Amino acid sequence: MAGKRAKTTTRPGIAASKRGGGGAPGGLAEAPPRGGFYDGWSEEIVEHLEDEFRKLRALATLELGPELEIAMCHALRKFLPERAGVCRGWVVDVTGDKQGEDIIIYDAARFPTLRGLGGDLAIRERVPAEAVLAYIEVKHTLYAQAKVPAKSQGQSVVKACRQVAAVKRLTRAPVPLKMIAPRISLEDGAIQRDRGFPAIRNPWYAAIWALNLRVDKALEGNPAEAVKRRVAAVRRAGTRVEHLPDVIAAGPVLMTPAIAAAGALEPRPFTTPDTELIFMNGMKALGAAMEHLTWAIDDILLGEIPWRRMLAHQLQRAEDEAGSVRLTIT
Fold first, then answer.
1. Which domain of life is it from (predicted)?
2. Is 255 exposed, middle or buried, given 0-12, 13-18 or 19+ CB atoms closer than 10 A?
3. Nearest to 264 by CA among 3, 19, 25
4. Among candidates 201, 225, 254, which has minimal Cα distance to 145?
5. pLDDT at residue 109 above 50?
6. Which residue in 143, 297, 278 sits closest to 206, CA to CA?
7. Residues 6+ apart with CB under 8 A from 83
8. What average pLDDT is seen over the chain?
9. H helices within 3-111, ranges in order?
């Protein structure tokens, strides 16, 4: 997959090489430190998240309506950094095109939503594309069957991938690698792209999360293979690599991008043309997906909403419609 290979593995996680990944200080360890990362902090986060998701799985009424999305938003708000706003609704770009209908994570420290509804998760918001950190397609049950029942077509892997691709095709100005803060950049060539990372600072991040997974009976012993086949079908149908989901977490299956390095695998936060998509069974998939999401958010540097252009447009419209008088103070 991702223009190269697609692998299915039954390992419970991704092995990392001794070399550092993505220029991170110290790189990726070959094995967890004694006692786990940060004295087991990482593992405890995953366990807490899994407890939240187990509660959701027990509520059969979440199959229909917005209840699952709202419950998932509450879970996200518990574990994401405070700057990450969470709402339901559409991502809208500067041209007016809007996509998505599920969960949007945006930079609440810098940007408002377009409706300004705050914490009311019952009503969908519109969020400017420049403000979006991540988009999540949420399903109660994700169908990875060769023939999905007609009533469940909207819950299929193929449909979810198409919705993710639609969001990723929205327009927003790229933030170059050399930018370290809005309007502050290093010299050209000062920063080089690391293998398996995007060529810009504000790539789209989009994921598919599902509490449960449905596969054909013949693949019940290897559900990761079922998900892989459906994603491969989406790719063959013409979806570009960078428009595929960055993560699929469904039941016990996790799909994540990675690169091969020194005979091992190093995970990556985004799907790029030089990453592979690895499909794994036996995962605490949603807990791992939350860690992956947090990593991606930490890596993203968003651009700016075109405030100057918007204000200039308002001034011009006022002058055209009301004949505003310009007064200059010297």
1. Bacteria
2. buried
3. 19
4. 225
5. yes
6. 297
7. 107, 108, 109
8. 84
9. 41-57, 67-79
CA count, 13 A, side-chain hemisphere, 58: 6
Compute the distance between CA of residue 137 and CA of residue 202 in angstroms, rounded to an integer: 19
Q: Which two tokens stand for residue 256?
A: 């994540």
Residue 11's pLDDT band, with cuts at 50, 70 and 90, is very low
What single-letter amino acid sits at 154? Answer: G
Contact 85, 106 (CB under 8 A): yes
Size (the chain), residues = 330
Q: What per-residue confidence (pLDDT) applies to 306?
A: 80
Place of tokens 């990726």: 28
| Range in 23-32, 109-118, 195-204 the model is least confident about | 23-32
3-state secondary structure of 260: strand
Q: For residue 287, give both structure tokens.
A: 């807990």
Pairing of the two strands 247-250 and 253-261: antiparallel
Structure tokens at 5: 């290979």
Question: What type of residue sits at position 80?
Answer: L
Segment (H or E) for 299:
helix 285-299
pLDDT reported for residue 122? 81
**Look-up of token digits 């930018």:** 179
- Whole-angstrom distance, CA of residue 204 vs CA of residue 165: 10
Question: What residues contact 138, with CB distance under 8 A and at least 6 apart?
Answer: 68, 69, 72, 102, 103, 209, 210
- What's this model's pTM, rounded to 2 decimal places? 0.84
